[in-house]
Amino acid sequence: MAFTFAAFCYMLSLVLCAALIFFAIWHIIAFDELRTDFKSPIDQCNPLVLPEYSIHSLFCIMFLCAQEWLTLGLNVPLLFYHLWRYFRCPADSSELAYDPPAVMNADTLSYCQKEAWCKLAFYLLSFFYYLYCMIYTLVSS
Amino acid sequence: MSAPAGLPPRPAAAAAAFSPGGPGSSLEAAAPGSGAPRCQNGPMQSQMQFPSGYGSHLPNYSAPSGHYSQVPNKAAASHLDNQYRASYYPGYYSAPAQNVMTSVGSNVLNAQESHQLYNNTPPHSGGSSDRPVQGAVSSASYLHVSAQQSYSAFDNHYSTSVSSSVASQGFPLNSDHYAMPVVSGAMYPNVSYPPVAAGVVYGQTFTSQSLPAVGQFKETNAFSSQSTSVPHSLQQHVPVGYNTTLSTVSSAQAVQDNLSRNLTGSVPKVNNQINTGGIDSSQPVHSVSQNVPFTKPGAGTSAASAVMSSVRSPAPSLSSKPPSSPSVTQSPELALQEALDSSSTTSSASPVLNNYDALEGGGYPETRSVTSSPVPSPSVLQTSKASKPFGYGYPALQPGYQNATPPTPVQPSNPGHHSGFQHYAQQYPGVSQLSSSLGGLSLQHSQQPESLRPVNLTHDRNILPVSSVPAPVPNLNSDLRKLNCSPDSFRCTLTNIPQTQALLNKAKLPLGLLLHPFRDLTQLPVITSSTIVRCRSCRTYINPFVSFIDQRRWKCNLCYRVNDVPEEFMYNPLTRSYGEPHKRPEVQNSTVEFIASSDYMLRPPQPAVYLFVLDVSHNAVEAGYLTILCQSLLENLDKLPGDSRTRIGFITFDSTVQFYNLQEGLSQPQMLIVSDIDDIFLPTPDSLLVNLHESKELIKDLLNALPNMFTNTRETHSALGPALQAAFKLMSPTGGRISVFQTQLPSLGAGLLHSREDPNQRSSTKVVQHLGPATDFYKKLALDCSGQQTAVDLFLLSSQYSDLASLACMSKYSAGCIYYYPSFHRSHNPAQAEKLQKDLKRYLTRKIGFEAVMRIRCTKGLSIHTFHGNFFVRSTDLLSLANVNPDAGFAVQMSIEESLTDTSLVCFQTALLYTSSKGERRIRVHTLCLPVVSSLSDVYAGADVQAVVCLLANMAVDRSVSSSLADARDALVNAVVDSLAAYMSTASNLQQSMLIAPNSLKLFPLYILALLKQKAFRTGTSTRLDDRVYAMCQMKSQPLVHLMKMIHPNLYRIDKLTDESTIHVNDRVVPQPPLQKLSAEKLTREGAFLMDCGSIFYLWIGKNCDNNFIKDVLGYPNYASVPQKMTQLPEVDAPSSERTRSFISWLRDSRPLSPVLQVIKDENPAKTDFFQHLIEDRTEAAFSYYEFLLNIQQQICK
């Protein structure tokens, strides 16, 4: 029973993961509102996109430092996806990860919705995984 | 298109079978000489359309018969061919003349005379006699609506009613417009309408119409006997000519006894309709004309005079119209261009087809929305039982009649030339009604339609039609077809919608819509009503394709919900009758405009606000555009659309931003300079945007001073970004239009750009970079503007690279428009200067709609997934358009989400809600109805190649920006390869070694090749990046007609224009030279050729061109003396010069932006431009058409 750095990482991840879950749900709701016409895409200025990306990269860095290779491996695909999204997004504006003029194209919108659902699922699973790992590290060491 | 000669057995038999009472009529059909009268039928009928003096135009009447002599053959071919075709094409014609025919038709039935030759002519005389009345009535309504002038026009309504209405609308009076039908005859000669069948059906219509009112067969008989007698009299003079109505009267008096009873019966009705005629012009007009034949003969009788007086007295009835009652007005929605366009017709005074339009664009008649008359509605009722999936259940119908008609379509059909005969068909709604009563769909599978005829592309060299390519006509039953929206406003790539997405995927054709929703219309029913009837669940506006379950309920055609008919809707303002919701104009027209109530406003309607943001840097002053702009503005200041609240403002910028205080009361305009471009602010909160009328003198002073204010400027920088930010701040409280004039790359402040073009890469065959924006600044600004209902229009007049790809964003996302004048210079480049001048004139004076939104709805199961055009997508089916202008086109891609197996029709509805420049909130609704098919061949049969190509062009633009140009080009080629391969695999009997396309798609490879050689997509040829980007912007925002000219220009040989095959427009004879292939093989040194590229005309003169032509047309003694930069043809008094000029001005009149003419001699530098448009030829970098076909064939075989 020792409070290692890894355990600390998992505890922090657990808290932050809850935030990520909240973000994902927020996105789902936002896209749904867009689809049902309650909201203008201009207002859809993605304030939560950048925080989400940075929180997730923080995870990865922490797990890298804690040498939790398995957890890192699980998170790396999403990290690369985020990086790709970030650098692909139009020109000089990072907050326009969802491009207002394009987001309403049915294709784009359904893609974004799917993405949000997938992320929600991923964060939920990782939440429990972090919980398990945290307890495991706390107990085992 | 060769056809067996002689009369087909089928129509004759059909006709015989059709006519319940008509040995005479069947005789007629079988008679060997019936071809001639039949042929005459069309043109004559059309002439009726034009309400003006008939006496003076006899010469024109003789012409049509000549053109029509070939008609029977063609018609025969189609009849022989099959019924499918018959149902497949034509007949959406509704019928202005229907009512006229009504009487006549029944007379044919009962006449039993041997007047075969004439029995289809009475309608003409009948028509000619009552048309004027119609014109009068409609003019009356116009007067009422617009000008509130006196009704004195009615005194001479037989000859001048048209002119009166015309005058009231400010139209030029075109006395020669009748000639149009002649032309159309000439151009689409293969049309005929078996008059017998028509007559029969008219009788049918008539009875069915009268029955609901009166009820029983006795009445019907009375009517028919009455009408029988009238025709007799009419027939007497028909051969003589159409100039008199008097003789009709005299002879008709013989039958007066017979008539009198019925007359009295009909008079109240006439009264009724005529009175309401003031309220709506188009519809009562029909009803009037219906009864007029009866009134004429009885001119001396009291009954008839009563009718006449009622005709003349719409004014009191109008004035007595209760203000609260729903009223329908036929408002002339005209803009300059359309007015010209339709000048060949009666300039919108009465529901007349825009023949010109039909000719020009191959489109449907402009006025389709109007052509539906009250009469069709009974027929709708009648037929919908058989054909509509969701039936009309009106009890008043007469099933007996319906069943009596044997299921044979006597509809002439001619796929290649649909557009040609619609006006004829329009006279024969009954004809189409026949097939509709059979249910058009049941005929589908009998034989192969014309549009499926296989065409061997590699063998058939001449696939271009003689004149313009017509839009295919949906395979609907005729009522629906004639109610359907004009293809000029609303076109679908597949006029037969595949049942499932799987089928669509198999066909490899894109499914989408091409919209031109705010097009200038000459005729548009405008409806003022306190409740706008809409579906409660999907909010669809009530439209002609809904079904009435009973008097109280209607079923939405998009979501199938059953809605209640509101109480107010039960009252029909046209007939002033109660309980006829299906006759309301909303249900009779597929294009209508509602005056919206305050429910449709988020804020009070905004005033028209115009802000001009002008570049005054050294570069701009040097180019000299300010002079032209200020001149145009001064000229058009009073014509700017708007009301008394109209506001206007000016901002100029170089390295600083200058504002102009134009507050009323100042002695001269005050310039306020803001040099802090990093944090721009407005120097005074108000008085920068001033009321146009209050400060007109100051504005004029400023405009006069502006061109000279900056002549000595040394400032080369351009702070466009800050100027735009200032403009946004200035506009955001109201919204409106910002017009930006920019001449160089913005170099200061926010939004500065750097040159990205590498001139060495201009002709690269590999990667073309920088098609996307360099910065988000302009996009964000556009989105902000869009949110504040402000549109930004960009005029880019630059000689060097200005990064249009980035700048264009400001217009793209704010629903603005983009104009680009490469290497503009006022004196060095007069062609561009002239173009700017003309564009500005149109730009400043055209209609404009503010704070608009457009929603596109479609039948459940279909879904819209991508939009193309300049707008901001506000929601999945809602486009936010800060401004909407009549020259904006949109495209929509669709997919089929749920199988459409349980429906046979799908509908699309666009509703454009906008604030007019007069501060009215209006909703323009277009509804398009298309059939659903389950077989692949039907999908191909209904393909609209022009729409497909335009949609593909839009998709390719997206692809080249998001991916790469090479990808987009591949995708275009693949589109042809895939669809042709898919077609060839369905047609198993075809030889695989040949390249076969269905007739409907025979131009597909040619158009795709043209696209690949278009500036937007070409590689290997030196293309400036800005030119390329501009071409792409055009593709996204131009409506189909203009886009097609851009993709595939029209080439005409004009050195030997003859008077043969001419049309008459506005007293002018317009020659109609045939279209030439875009190939150098067609050019000869002895000739002169005119190429119509949409925005520019090239006149190419061959070296050995006839000196007479050069002398007469160009005004120079010989070829050598023709100057290099010639942009105008002199007015020489010689027939060839006259012909050429009238042809060119005719072409010009057909489009909003009048193109610039450029004369090209052999050694002219502009020669390359001209030759680049010869897309069928080989260039160093691209295939010739034949090579392209071989390439496609190779890829298919792979």
What's the short version?
Chain A has 141 residues and is mainly α.
Structure description:
The complex is a heterodimer of chains A (141) and B (1198). Chain A is mainly α. Chain A has 5 helices and no strands. With 1198 residues, chain B is an alpha+beta fold. Chain B is built from 46 helices and 35 strands. In chain B, helix 1 (9-18) runs parallel beside helix 11. Chain B is globular, with a radius of gyration of 30 Å. Mean pLDDT of chain B is 68; it is low at 1-447. The A-B interface holds A 34-35, 37, 40-42, 90-93, 96, 100-101, 103-107, 109 and B 772-776, 779-780, 783, 786-787, 812-813, 863-867, 872-876, 878, 895.
Please describe the biggest sheet of chain B, giving its number of strands, its sense, and whether it closes into a barrel: 9 strands, mixed
Distance between the termini of chain B: 33 Å
The helix-and-strand class of chain B reads alpha+beta
- Strand coverage percent of chain A: under 5%
Rg estimate of chain A, integer Å: 17 Å
Average of per-residue pLDDT values of chain B: 68
- Mass-distribution shape of chain B: globular
Q: Give the chain pair forming the largest contact, with residue counts.
A: A-B, 19 and 24 residues
Order of helices and strands of chain A: HHHHH
Oligomer: heterodimer
Q: Give unreliable regions of chain A as ranges.
A: none
Determine the fraction of residues in helical runs of chain B and give it as a percent range: 40-55%
- Rg of chain B, rounded, reads 30 Å
Helix count of chain A equals 5
Largest sheet of chain A: none
Shape of chain A: elongated
Number of helices of chain B: 46
Uncertain ranges of chain B: 1-447
